Amino acid sequence: MAALDGIDLTLHRGEVLALLGPNGAGKSTALSLLLGLRRPDQGRVELFGRSPDDPAARAMVGATPQDTGFPETLKVGEVIDLVSAHYPNPVPKAELLDRFGLTPLAARQTGGLSGGQKRRLAVALAFAGRPAAVFLDEPTTGLDVEARRMLWAAVDGYVAGGGTVLLTTHYLEEAEALARRIAVIDQGRVVAEGALDDIRGRVSLRRVRFTAAHLPPLDAKALGIERVERSGTEIVLVTARADDTVRALVMSGAPFSDLEVRAATLEEALMSIVRTGRGEAA
After folding, report:
1. Which of 85, 99, 120, 214 is most buried, most CB within 10 Å of its CB?
2. Where in the chain is CATH 3.30.70?
3. Could you tell me if 199 and 219 are in contact, meaning their C-beta atoms sit under 8 angstroms apart?
4. Which residues pair with 164 in a beta bridge?
5. How far is CA 143 from the centre of its chain?
6. Fold observed for domain 204-263
7. Does domain 16-200 match CATH 3.40.50.300?
8. Strands across the sheet containing 61-64
């Protein structure tokens, strides 16, 4: 089976494109091709109209792969100096350290950093050379909430200045917070692409939320109810037939209040899109 099958992605200046999909879908392979770390068996890959192997193209891109390592005896500030020396106009070290919350760690050897601290350093280095585009593969894995939001703020600032980001992440909250567009990839193919609301709108699933002491007797199969969520007296029915579900709820005669119908979550939409692409029943 091909790792990728006819993927066509276009990134626009000043936006974040989130590449989402199950494990093994081909997300990291796509980034490897864009970075010239792997070669396509057929077709072509272009970065700014050039081959990823072209030094001019490489100079315009920063990247953070899933796995990174540093010489353990080098200090954080020394690692930044080493990487920045490869660029004609790097971000000043003090600015880069501050942007990613690394200033207190500047004099610490990388061998003494925690996994989350190493991850922050790896992401910071992707921005060191003022690239036109940055590719981030699961950038916030291992980060706590505060560090994750600091990284989000750094990405927002970079994009506001005209930068472009291609992001893979398993944190769907991260995709919702950062991305203007979403591309869903599964089994090496892009199965959906569009704005966040467009992706949610491609599926018929809705969330019917209400408050009740007990769940009324409903025919889940006939109403297309895929899942029931309960938290105290709050009940959520995830269903493909929201109107019929609400009608059945009213007709049941059971007391309830605070009825609300919302679109599916991004996670629910992704699961539905992947199942549909594989020809599986919902």
Report:
1. 120
2. 204-263
3. no
4. 133
5. 14
6. Alpha-Beta Plaits (3.30.70)
7. yes
8. 61-64, 133-137, 164-168, 16-20, 181-186, 189-195
Amino acid at 147: A
| Cβ-defined contacts of 228-237 (< 8 Å, 24+) | 234/209, 234/210, 235/209, 235/210, 235/211, 236/207, 236/208, 236/209, 237/207, 237/208, 237/209
**Strand pairing class (181-186; 16-20):** parallel
Output the tens digit of pLDDT for each of the chain's 282 residues: 345 566 777 888 899 999 998 877 778 888 888 888 888 777 777 888 888 888 888 889 999 988 888 999 999 999 999 999 999 999 999 999 999 999 999 999 999 999 999 999 999 999 999 999 999 999 998 899 999 999 999 999 999 999 999 999 888 889 989 998 999 888 878 888 888 888 877 777 888 999 999 988 899 989 989 889 999 999 999 988 899 999 999 999 999 999 999 887 788 788 888 877 666 544
